[in-house]
Amino acid sequence: MTLIKQEDFIQSIADSLQYISFYHSADFVHAMHSAYEREQSDSARNAIAQILINSRMSAEGRRPICQDTGIVVVFLKIGMQVTWESGLTLNEMVNEGVRRAYLNPDNPLRASIVSPPVGKRGNTGDNTPAVVHVEMVEGDKVDVTVSAKGGGSENKSKFTILNPSDSVVNWVLDTVPKMGAGWCPPGVLGIGLGGSAEKAMVMAKEGLMDPINIQELIARGPNSATEELRLELFEKVNNLGIGAQGLGGVTTVLDIKINEFPTHAASLPVAMIPNCAATRHAHLVLDGSGPVALEQPKLSDWPEISWDPGDDTLHVDVNNIGPEDITKWKPGQTLLLSGKILTGRDAAHKRIQQILSQGESLPNGVDFNNRFIYYVGPVDPVGNEAVGPAGPTTSTRMDKFTDMMLEQAGLLGMIGKAERGDGAIDSIKRHKSVYLIAVGGAAYLVSKAIQSAKVVAFEDLGMEAIYEFDVKEMPVTVAVDSKGESVHKTGPEIWRKKLLVAAPS
Hints:
Structural class: alpha/beta
């Protein structure tokens, strides 16, 4: 019998969550670097470069890779010969580990969990509770897989129940383009086949925890129908041309993972969950000898990459531009922004809507007229930081507020990540506005452009409060210009055609 002590388990959970907040796994870094070397699209290559540079910076600075430090999901496989020295339940121990990790003063992680899920949706303040899956297995050890799943990728999870004669490949190829770029490709797609509805979803999530090894599979060849399916999907999903950040390119996925389980004769449940460019997970085993210490990676595991914004990059002083200036910006053009911008996400937009609908004035310090808004919920700063990691959030969630912000609030433009919906693009075109993107998965890199930050309204919303950032050469790309042209439509279309021509007949 193995005795697992409460404190050893809790500290292992806490330490692993801190670890994955700033260290990418070596297999992910290697796969992303290989994608960088293969990439033929300049826009996608630049995005991957920023992701890799950000990854190395986070490892060096021991600060979060992404501002969205995720919802914690823990898979526990507990040996039947394990006993516990604890006055807490398993869930209580996991949650205490989460609490310690997210409130760590040396590297505070953003608390994103709200409760209840409908209605008030108040932030729990410590990122608890975690989602915990428990399985009893043979043996005398506790096998733990810890992950922190970002909302942008989690929101793109898909599930269906196909007819047994339907094609899984066709469903995946039809569904992936509809997921947009909010999951920050390139990443990994986890697929669960069979079982029941909930079993398929759990299997898809579990697949994301496995090492990236598709290139090894390509080298040796498939040994089963499932491996053949992985290879077919890997090739065909990448040939969709979606590319890094949805800008168009040769790499959309770094790997395809498939788990399967026997299912009812009348059913074919299929679940698909993406992991983003800030993929975070770790595996540890407790054997009763104390807390588990994960090995610190070597910086030599990261490639030395520099990012060159390009000759056509435009330096923009956002304090001194107007509507006429932004009409000259071109789709796909790189801008380096300097000056003062405001922030705002879902909760802030909803509150602005309530204020304006009642004919009231916005709070002092909140004047969007002729200004830019950045869709972000930053991590709290430490040391001499102006702000913690502050990458963009998925912009489509703010689409329904676009008309209001452009027409009533006088907003000049928006900064976020991923595509905008047709309604938002029409509004941007009608108001001769503009939509810019920062790279999702490069939050620490972006934060280095922020010289100062202060909350100007809605402080009670925590990370969703409205901040004023003073930025210096913040890198962004023109995603929708004032004429309504979207690079998230034109880029993938161009590369899909190129890859179709290049594909063997």
